[in-house]
Amino acid sequence: MHLGDEVVGERRLVALENIEEGGLFKRLFDQVQRFFSNLISSFTD
User: Fold this and answer.
1) Is 3 a residue whose pLDDT tops 90?
2) Which of 1, 26, 28, 40 fits as disulfide partner to 22, beta carbons 3.0 to 4.6 Å?
3) How far apart are CA 23 and CA 29, in angstroms?
């Protein structure tokens, strides 16, 4: 976790099950989706 540029906390992340990495189109779709999600959230903050 960050507060500005300062790290104020860390946690280990443990997955309950393995998940295969998506193919090229899945990763591309996810990246486009994150781009628009970040774009929209920048207007709502």
Assistant:
1) no
2) 26
3) 10
